[in-house]
């Protein structure tokens, strides 16, 4: 009974809101919106993180003791570069005995029995150093972790996957530096599905030719895949057509050049893509035309709009006007 009463109350409130808006519209509550030109870009938004493209773990060639650390975390190294020196278990024991006999004896055995170098197997970045000088290590001890290249790994909803392709450009930010956007391109779309928050998604790998030096593995990334670009397009605010898109709607319009006292005429307008804020006008209007908008509704408006004519919520796909860099969700 309580639920039914609440529903009746909500219905009554909606009816009053409609009646109020209709009353205002009847009294001439209208707005005028000019048709403008501008650039509009559409995006598919996704979240992900920064990860190594290939993670290389460096293990010691022998069991023994780490004598000297040469390279530390964050260092960019070349293949074959010495990262550390270590002694095998036999050499470590021999040097300990020689050290007890004095510096001359120690130096003799250090020259005769050379230490073993730990070298970088690939070009890349050291992202972890897991040992310290003097530490005893086994052959299974992970001394260093190296990344040959940091990439962006994005989780893309299956409903948006059709808009993603190899070589596609994207704008990326990380939560640590939200105002620093950098360009990436898609290098791989995985075939295996994963569930992220109970939504079927696919991982998309992106690389950047000029990745910021501040990037660190594990950072949270916000990715805006560039889908469509509309340069110098005719645009209307989305609210002016009550969120309708990729449809034909009827509007009242005053054509550019008409006299001051000319009355608006009805026009059939074909709409294209939207960025949630603006919508592309494909035909039916010209730059400088003025669209007369009722405060409540328009003929043929999208049935998915809200009570007060806000743009419909867009699932997964979002967009931004050229020059902006919307943040992903």
Short description:
The protein is mainly beta. The protein has helices at 2-26, 89-101, 103-112; strands at 30-34, 36-52, 55-58, 64-69, 76-77, 82-88, 116-119, 124-129, 136-137, 144-147, 150-157, 169-174, 177-196, 199-207, 220-237, 248-254, 265-274, 278-283, 290-294, 317-321.
Work out the number of β strands: 20
Residue-averaged pLDDT: 82
Strand percentage? over 45%
**How far is the first residue's CA from the last residue's CA?**
39 Å
> What strand line-up does the widest sheet have?
2-11-14-13-12-15
- Label the structural class: mainly beta
Roughly what percent helix?
10-25%
Tell me which CATH architecture of the largest domain applies here: Beta Barrel
Summarize the structure in words.
There is one protein chain. The chain has a 6-stranded antiparallel β-barrel. A 4-stranded antiparallel sheet has the order 3-10-8-5, with no helix packed on it. Helix 2 packs antiparallel against helix 3. It starts with a helix and ends in an 8-residue tail after the last strand. Helices cover 15% and strands 46% of the residues. It folds into 3 domains: 111 residues, Beta Barrel (conserved putative lor/sdh protein from methanococcus maripaludis s2 fold), CATH 2.40.420; 86 residues, Beta Barrel (Elongation Factor Tu (Ef-tu), domain 3), CATH 2.40.30; 87 residues, Beta Barrel (OB fold (Dihydrolipoamide Acetyltransferase, E2P)). 26% of the residues are buried. The N terminus and C terminus are likely disordered. It is mainly beta and 329 residues long.
């Amino acid at each position: 009974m309580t639920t039914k009463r609440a529903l009746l109350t909500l219905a009554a409130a909606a009816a009053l809101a409609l009646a109020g808006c209709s009353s205002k519209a009847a009294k001439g509550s209208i707005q005028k919106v000019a048709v403008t030109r501008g650039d509009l870009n559409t995006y598919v938004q996704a979240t992900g993180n920064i990860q190594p493209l290939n993670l290389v773990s460096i293990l010691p060639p022998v069991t023994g003791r780490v004598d000297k650390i040469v390279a530390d975390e964050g260092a960019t190294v070349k293949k074959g570069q010495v990262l550390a020196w270590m002694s095998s278990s036999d050499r470590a024991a021999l040097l300990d005995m020689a050290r007890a006999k004095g510096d001359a004896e120690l130096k003799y055995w250090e020259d005769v029995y050379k230490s073993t170098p730990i070298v970088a197997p690939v070009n890349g970045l050291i992202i972890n150093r897991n040992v310290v000088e003097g530490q005893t290590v086994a052959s299974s001890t992970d001394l260093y972790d190296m990344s040959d290249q940091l990439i962006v790994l994005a989780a893309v909803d299956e409903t948006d996957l059709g808009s993603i392709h190899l070589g596609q450009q994207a704008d990326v930010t990380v939560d640590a530096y939200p105002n620093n956007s950098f360009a990436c391109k898609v290098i791989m779309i995985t075939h295996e599905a994963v569930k992220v928050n109970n939504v079927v998604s696919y991982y998309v790998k992106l690389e950047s030719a000029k990745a910021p030096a501040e990037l660190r593995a594990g950072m949270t990334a916000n990715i805006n895949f560039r889908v469509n670009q509309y340069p110098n397009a005719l645009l209307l605010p989305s609210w002016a057509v009550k969120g309708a898109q990729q449809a034909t709607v009827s509007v009242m319009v005053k054509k550019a050049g008409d006299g001051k006292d000319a009355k608006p005429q009805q026009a059939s307008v074909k709409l294209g893509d939207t960025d949630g804020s603006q919508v592309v006008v494909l035909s039916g209007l010209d730059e400088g035309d003025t669209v007369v908008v009722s405060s409540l509704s328009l003929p043929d408006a999208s049935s998915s709009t809200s009570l007060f004519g806000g743009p419909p919520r867009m699932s997964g796909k979002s967009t931004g006007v050229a020059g902006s860099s919307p943040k992903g969700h």
